[in-house]
Specification:
Blueprint (H helix, E strand, L loop, with lengths): L1 H39 L5 H22 L4
Helix pairs in contact: 1-2
Length: 71
């Protein structure tokens, strides 16, 4: 029973880490998108939309590959 609880805690920490990576990466992508759009003087905020989408796709790929690993 103790081993099962330890595995559950490990999985919880792993997924909490992935969620934290997601939020931090999205926040950083939006911040960089705003800064780059103003620096490039774009009339439409292209990078505010593109950078977070790239981050979402890459993190979803990472999430899928990490959760489908065979033990």
């Amino acid at each position: 029973m103790y081993s099962s609880n330890k595995n559950n805690n490990r999985d919880l920490l792993k997924y909490a880490g992935l969620a934290m990576q997601l939020f931090l990466a999205l926040g950083l992508a939006v911040f960089l998108g705003i800064k780059l759009d103003t620096w490039l003087k774009l009339s439409f905020p292209v990078l505010v939309w593109v950078l977070p989408l790239v981050i979402l796709v890459s993190l979803m790929y990472k999430l899928i590959t990490e959760t489908n690993k065979k033990k």
